[in-house]
């Protein structure tokens, strides 16, 4: 894993998830920062995962293979020993991989797939029956000039939670003091205790059918699928609660009975099995060596 080990950029969680899952799979995995002193660590036969925001010193080694995110293979002089890795959106091209939200464009050597869930199914949780009146948000609340973030929707979401007597608290945002944020196990525990646990996306993400890793993580944490974006292609028309209005979204989730949540979570967890990092890594390696 090339880059972001000591950084606070949000993509470090992606690098970290790949790193941990490669180790679980028995690979000799190494994670380094994007520094000149680490260039000599890369050898022929290695697989290097790299992202544009941490690629200043990315070494190009003959005989190594590369998995690139937002880096032009042509500009850095790679031949066929690479694939591009992109998150799936409505603009994804190529052939379907047999499941929703995964495509392979062989002409561009690009695999489109969600980042997915970093934990294994044996760590996934069942719904919690007696929850406190609290909503634990793990991650960032943000926006930019293109309105790609989630802050606008979150304003209405948080306001509606308060109107329903639900306290909102934010956790896990990386900082210089806590660059790793919080652990996956703690994140799952918090989400499991949440009254709603919706996978909120920004307006750009909703319009472009962006699939956030939060969607998979929350289901794995034992909450029923819910979002301000429509993910019924994966879960089915009755497999979750999807509404762009925060008041409607929250009201519908609160109306669910416990046994209904149990059924929804069980069905949803079976459908996210192809979106674990283990499954994603298997697809990457299959294409990288085909």
CATH architecture name of the largest domain: 3-Layer(aba) Sandwich
Strand content: 5-15%
The gross shape turns out to be elongated
Q: What top-tier CATH class of the largest domain fits best?
A: Alpha Beta
SSE order, one letter for each helix or strand: HEEEEEEEHEHHHEHEHHH
Tally of individual helices: 9
Radius of gyration: 19 Å
Largest β sheet strand count, sense and barrel closure: 6 strands, mixed
Give me the count of strands: 10
Stretches with pLDDT under 50, minimum 5 residues: 175-179
How far is it from the N-terminal to the C-terminal residue, by CA?
A: 21 Å
Question: Strand order, biggest sheet?
Answer: 1-2-3-6-5-4
Spell out the CATH superfamily of the largest domain.
Glycogen Phosphorylase B
- What average pLDDT do the residues reach? 94
Give the % helix: 25-40%
The tally of structural domains comes to 2
Task: Enter the CATH topology name of the largest domain.
Answer: Rossmann fold
The computed structural class is alpha/beta
What does this structure look like?
The protein is an alpha/beta fold. The chain has 2 domains: 12-115 and 276-288, no CATH class; 121-271, Glycogen Phosphorylase B (Rossmann fold, 3-Layer(aba) Sandwich), CATH 3.40.50.2000. It contains 9 helices and 10 strands. A hairpin with a 6-residue loop joins strand 4 and strand 5. The longest helix has 14 residues, at 258-271. It is elongated and about 60 Å long. The two termini are 21 Å apart.
């Amino acid at each position: 894993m090339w880059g972001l080990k000591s950084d606070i950029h949000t993509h470090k969680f992606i690098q970290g998830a790949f790193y941990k899952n490669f180790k679980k799979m028995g690979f000799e995995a190494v994670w380094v920062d994007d520094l000149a002193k680490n260039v000599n660590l890369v050898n022929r036969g290695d697989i290097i995962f790299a992202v544009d925001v941490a690629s200043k010193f990315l070494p190009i080694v003959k005989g190594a293979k590369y998995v690139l995110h937002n880096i032009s293979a042509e500009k850095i002089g790679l031949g066929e020993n690479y694939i591009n890795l992109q998150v799936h959106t409505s603009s994804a091209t190529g052939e379907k991989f047999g499941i929703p939200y995964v495509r392979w464009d062989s002409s561009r050597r690009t695999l489109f797939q969600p980042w997915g869930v970093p934990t294994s199914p044996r760590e996934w949780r069942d719904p919690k029956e007696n929850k406190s009146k609290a909503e634990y948000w793990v991650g960032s609340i943000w926006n930019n000039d293109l309105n790609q973030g989630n802050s606008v929707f979150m304003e209405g979401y948080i306001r509606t939670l308060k109107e329903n007597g639900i306290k909102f608290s934010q956790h896990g945002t990386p900082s210089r003091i806590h660059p790793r944020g919080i652990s996956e196990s703690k994140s799952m525990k918090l989400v499991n205790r949440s009254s709603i646990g919706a996978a909120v996306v920004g307006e750009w993400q909703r319009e472009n059918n962006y699939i956030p890793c939060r969607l998979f993580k929350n289901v794995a944490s034992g909450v029923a699928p819910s979002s301000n974006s429509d993910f019924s292609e994966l879960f089915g028309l009755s497999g979750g609660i999807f509404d762009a209005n925060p008041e409607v979204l929250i009201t519908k989730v609160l109306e669910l009975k416990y046994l209904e949540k149990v059924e929804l979570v069980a069905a949803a967890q079976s459908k996210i099995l192809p979106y674990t990092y283990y499954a994603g890594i298997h697809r990457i390696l299959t294409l990288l060596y085909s």
